[in-house]
From TrEMBL:
Transmembrane segments: none
PROSITE patterns: GNAT
Name of the protein in its database record: GNAT superfamily N-acetyltransferase
Keyword match Transferase: yes
Amino acid sequence: MSSRTSPTSQPITIRRAVARDAKRLTRLVRGSSAYEGKYAAAVAGYRVGPDYIEAHRTFVAVDADEHGGRVLGFYSLVLAPPELDLLFVADEVQGRGIGRRLVAHMQSEARAAGIDRLKVVSHLPAEDFYHRVGAVRTGTAFANPPAVPWDRPEFEFRIPPG
């Protein structure tokens, strides 16, 4: 059994992000292997700051280690207009269901906020993931050079009532 598909050995908790998580979230974004090569410029100067965490519903998945929990992934839900702004899972734990758990948590948060659908502009390497977790392709977000010099798939999550 490969380490990419085996279950995590520690229990996972999803909790609201706090200001002191900002540096770890920024490192996770900048260190993502999904943003290597031609995609590297998109996250080179990216920062998830305490102000961002305070302004949006940002949640982190952490394991329960003796050091207060290692960040395994996170997402950010923007309420107006409804959008999944960020979703990242640490490279070393991808394939273990953490992204799927973060999406389920996001859907629960969206439902609680009265949202019945929300948009996601996907990074190209994440397109298959969004299909697998139930997002529906709705269009294309066109390139916006120099920040994003490539077209990206646009998806929608439809949030069923609880």
